[in-house]
Amino acid sequence: MNRLSRNGLFLLSCLLVLLLPLWSSAQIGPPEPENTSPFKGNLFTLIQQKPLPYDEDISNLLLHSGLTSSASLIQVREGVKSHYHATHDEIVYVLQGKGVMKVGDEKRVVQPGDLIVLERGTVHSVINKSAEPLVALSIICPPFDGKDRIFTE
Q1: Structural contact between residues 134 and 100, judged by C-beta atoms closer than 8 angstroms
Q2: What residues contact residue 85 under an 8 Å CB cut-off, 6+ apart?
Q3: Residues 20, 113: Cα–Cα separation, whole Å
Q4: Of 91, 53, 87, whose CA–CA distance to 71 is shortest?
Q5: CA distance linking residue 115 with residue 44, whole number of Å
Q6: β-strands 79-84, 150-151: how paired?
Q7: This model's pTM is above 0.85
Q8: What digits encode the pLDDT tens for the residues 101-121?
Q9: Rounded CA gap, 90 and 74, in Å?
């Protein structure tokens, strides 16, 4: 074998070594379809997987946003100041923790299993009264874009 063909084989081998990782990571065929199942998982497992960071007071994890509604997992360390939504209705289902929620002029202790229905324009706030974050499922109609939160304090 002459020197030119040895150099050519060497360069070809080097090229293959460099390109092999790219070929092996390339997807063959169409992309995996998006998970369109209506079963989205267990919320209590999700809370364990994505706990409220220690340096944050509130976390809002979007679970779903569709044509007519959105759903979020809300975690609150201290509280949420008084506010209302001018164009959105909200349903809150408490999953973990204990707090005091004020809706309009009424104050109540809220705890796991409690359901609160907040029609648009209703002023509401919550104070966490437990050592762990207060966690709730929030369903908002129409889908919430984060802009319709009008603070009153």
Answers
A1: no
A2: 118, 120, 121, 140, 144, 148, 149, 150
A3: 55
A4: 91
A5: 17
A6: antiparallel
A7: no
A8: 999 999 999 999 999 999 999
A9: 13
Which residues, in sequence order, are bridge partners of residue 93? 115, 137
Q: pLDDT exceeding 70 applies to what percent of the chain? A: 77
What are the tens digits of pLDDT across the range 14-67? 544 555 554 445 556 666 666 677 888 899 999 999 999 999 999 999 999 999
Q: Do the beta carbons of residue 101 and residue 124 sit within 8 Å?
A: yes
Place of tokens 């299993």: 113
The answer for 104, left when phi > 0, alpha when psi is -120 to 50, beta otherwise, is left
**Kind and range of the H or E element at 150?**
strand 150-151
List strand residue ranges (DSSP E) for 27-122, in order.
Answer: 58-65, 70-76, 79-84, 89-96, 99-103, 106-110, 115-118
CA atoms 144, 148, 152, 153: torsion sign: positive
Q: Under CATH, which architecture does the 43-151 domain have?
A: Sandwich (2.60)
Phi/psi at 21 (nearest 5 deg)?
-60, -35
| Residue ranges covered by each domain of the chain | 43-151
